[in-house]
Write a structure and sequence with these properties.
Elements: E1 2-3, H1 56-61, H2 63-67, H3 73-83, H4 87-103, H5 115-126, E2 132-133, H6 138-151, H7 156-159, E3 162-169, E4 172-179, H8 180-197, H9 214-224, H10 234-251, E5 258-260, E6 265-267, H11 268-289, H12 299-322, E7 340-349, E8 354-359, E9 366-379, H13 380-387, E10 399-402, H14 404-415
Parallel strand pairs: 7-9
Antiparallel strand pairs: 1-2, 3-4, 5-6, 7-8, 9-10
Helix pairs in contact: 6-10, 6-11, 8-9, 8-10, 8-11, 11-12, 12-13, 12-14, 13-14
């Protein structure tokens, strides 16, 4: 069980790097900063240490230690003062400093997405939370934190990098061009549907959208903006995600609260999974736009996202059948609610995997191994990208056995789960 501390203003967000206020000179007189204050000092900012008087030969011998930040405060001050006066020593110090960076083993900045979950689990085993966050809300908490960490060090060029949003409509692909900032604005407005259901402010404010549908809300927000979205959109998105998690923690068992998406509703616990899924998908869109690697969610969270998609498939399949986009099946009538019917076994391999029996004849039917007519095997991440509209159904790398029409219908229904 995750925790939300009442006085925690950061929503548990892991930052990609702490604020960096170090000086990094690269020429003569460059210095490696030393601690300016400590707990023992009561947090007071200490004055620069007075340099000691040392001979040139001694200062030269200290250059290696200085480059490794192994000098005392007084020695470092003496070396740095000398570097401003001696060109030969300044050049040698620069070479030594560059050599030190070559000695350091390069490490990846990309953390295991499950690391945050493991650290929090370990902490919470030692100290139970005062205000627990429901388990069904933790994927949203984790994915917004990971995206926020990705955005931490973006400059103006990254915020305006072009991004193409992709999804699936009917029997074909659809897309919309925007920027990194535009994607965050999209997440802000669609997450707003959950915020409104929880009684929080709607990020649209006075902007009127033609419907509650995610695409309609996003387009209304984009049109109402006097300028294209910039890095300024990160703050309200971050604050809103924090408020959503905080409110869910304080409201307790509100997982059944309905959240409207315009033409359909989801209970809050499923809406939070849906928002976590879209946050991850669009984080990958952003990472691809700035050429940065981005890992899938932890296996536990990925399994929840796959389970939500599997539970939604029968309803989407029925809607496609009513629209004439899926085969009507070989039965003259729908199976009664609660009764077993023709089923497809969806086997998800790898991270977040499992098996689901998808009823084919009616959303209210029960999947049955005795009535299995087809079997599809897919990798977990590949299935999620199919459900996000990023992989064409006809090209999904799947192991397929059984009724070909049933397999096609389910793969196309999975792609139809996607939206802008």
């Amino acid at each position: 069980m995750k925790a939300y501390e009442e006085d925690d203003g950061d929503n548990g967000h892991d930052e990609k790097g702490a604020a960096d206020d170090t000086e990094t000179g690269t020429g003569t007189g460059a210095r490696i900063p030393l601690p300016r204050a400590s707990v023992e000092d009561g947090g007071r900012v200490l004055p620069d240490p007075a340099p000691v008087a040392l001979e040139h030969q001694v200062l030269t011998s200290l250059l290696g230690a200085w480059a490794l930040a192994a000098c005392s405060a007084q020695e470092a001050a003496a070396v740095e003062e000398h570097l401003g006066e001696c060109e030969a020593c300044a050049e040698e110090a620069l070479r030594l400093r560059e050599a030190v960076t070559l000695l350091q083993r390069p490490e990846s900045l990309d953390l295991d997405p499950a690391l945050r979950t493991r650290v929090l689990d370990g902490c919470l085993e030692r100290r139970p939370p005062r205000i627990p966050v429901p388990e069904w809300a933790t994927p949203y908490d984790a994915e917004t934190a990971r995206l926020d960490a990705l955005l931490q060090d973006f400059g103006d060029a990254e915020w305006h990098a072009p991004v193409r949003l992709r999804w699936f409509e009917g029997d074909g692909a659809a897309s919309r061009r925007t920027t990194v900032a535009g994607v965050i604005a999209h997440l802000l407005t669609v997450d707003g549907t959950v915020a409104v259901a929880l009684g929080l402010d709607d990020p649209l404010g006075d902007i009127t959208a033609p419907s509650r549908a995610p695409a309609a809300r996003t387009e209304a927000y984009w049109r109402a903006s006097h300028y294209p979205p910039t890095r300024a959109v990160r703050a309200p998105w971050r604050a809103q995600s924090h408020s959503i998690v905080r409110t869910v923690a304080f409201t307790g068992d509100a997982g059944g609260l309905p959240v409207s998406y315009g033409d359909f509703e989801l209970p809050l616990r499923d809406a939070m999974l849906d928002r976590a899924f879209e946050c991850w998908v669009h984080a990958e869109d952003i990472a691809e736009a700035v050429d940065y690697p981005y890992a899938p969610p932890s296996a536990r969270h990925l399994n929840g996202m796959i389970d939500l998609a599997a539970r939604m498939l029968p309803g989407v399949l029925a809607a496609r059948r009513r629209a004439g986009l899926a085969t009507p099946g070989d039965r003259p009538h729908l199976v009664a609610a609660g009764e077993p019917g023709r089923s497809l076994r969806l086997e998800i391999e790898g991270s977040g995997g499992g098996e689901w029996l998808i009823p084919l004849d009616s959303p209210g039917a029960v999947g049955s191994a005795d009535h299995e007519v087809a079997h599809v095997a897919l990798d977990g991440v590949e299935f999620c990208r199919l459900a996000a509209g990023h992989v064409p159904p006809a090209e999904a790398a799947a192991g397929q056995v059984g009724d070909r029409e049933a397999i096609r219908d389910v793969l196309f229904a999975a792609a139809s789960l996607s939206r802008m």
